[in-house]
Design a protein that fits this description.
alpha+beta; four-stranded antiparallel beta sheet
Length: about 240
């Protein structure tokens, strides 16, 4: 969580404030804090759009902030940690903020539990995987893939190679290849459409290592330093002018 206190800009001058200024200080502080918080929130959203390739609305909406109050004139901006049916933004963005490795996704855990993928492997989408408008593999596609591989029922791989309709053979199906398979194919999940060479959809790899791309704290702090003092002075002057009128 990014937590910034706008009052740190006024410590040096508070002793010199006139009585009229002190009268309006609490309201001006809350007003300036909220305006600064919205500015920082916008700066972080802009940074996400800059460093990520087509970030999803789910990721952008996961950037939250809380308005200040008279008792707590503090800016709080954070990434949502509860995802409902999806992965929380705080989880899938953390490696992009801190660098390092990522956790297994839900469908990867299902593949591991089904014995299709090893516990130290990760499924990376490659050229055969369809992408949505944001560059991600669509969820319904993954669900159909897992169903075809019988992840939700029987375990194993190269599963469901024959259709259930009238016992006829299916030409369109997914199958998985594990490391060391005698076929010579790279370990991963393939889509067979009747062509001589099946399309590789997900490649089983080692744990991916991410570098820091989204400087959440650095961008937030720079945005705060850029506008906090100006917003505070403007808010205080505005309240004093209203009182004089």
């Amino acid at each position: 969580m990014l937590k910034l206190d706008i009052r740190e800009n006024g410590v040096a001058v508070r002793a010199r404030l006139a009585e009229l200024q002190r009268k309006h200080l609490p309201a001006a502080t809350v007003e300036a804090t909220n305006k600064t918080g919205r500015y920082i929130h916008g700066a972080l959203r802009s940074e996400m759009k800059e460093v990520f390739d087509r970030p999803t609305p789910w990721a952008l909406r996961g950037l939250r902030y809380k308005l200040a109050t008279a008792s707590q004139p503090i800016i709080r901006i954070w990434l949502e940690e509860w995802g409902g049916k999806g992965i929380p933004p705080a989880v899938f963005l953390r490696p992009q903020i801190e660098g390092g490795t990522r956790r297994h996704k839900r469908f990867e855990r299902a593949l591991i539990l089904a014995g299709i993928m090893r516990a130290n492997e990760f499924a990376m989408p490659v050229y055969g995987a369809p992408r949505d408008a944001y560059g991600n593999v669509p969820g319904p596609y993954i669900v159909r893939m897992l169903s075809d591989l019988q992840v939700f029922g029987e375990q194993g791989y190269r599963a469901n190679r024959r259709g259930a309709r009238r016992g006829q053979r299916r030409w369109n199906y997914w199958f998985a290849i594990r490391s060391g398979d005698p076929s010579g194919l790279r370990p991963g999940i393939y889509w067979s459409s009747g062509a001589k060479v099946p399309a590789l959809v997900f490649l089983f790899t080692r744990q991916p290592l991410y570098r820091q791309r989204f400087d959440f704290f650095g961008v937030g702090r720079k945005a705060f330093d850029r506008v906090a003092r100006r917003f505070f002075n403007e808010a205080l002057a505005r309240h004093i002018r209203r009182d004089n009128r």
